[in-house]
Fold:
Amino acid sequence: MERRKKAAKLPTIKQLEDFDFSFQPSIDSKLTSDLATCKFIKSKENAVFIGASGTGKTHLSIALALKALAHHESSSLT
Structure:
């Protein structure tokens, strides 16, 4: 896992469990939990976060990348 994390070149470490859904109530926590299973990767789908600055897009992206790495998938942020 550490080798995959290093290869992913994530800018920082953010965990899904640390995301404050009450700060951003428009984000569906159930959908986010479903994305955390990484089923979308096996289905060859993408996850895209769109929104204003400071809404948690990077936090969620990094957290999902770490979940993917834990599921032995490769991951990157673009």
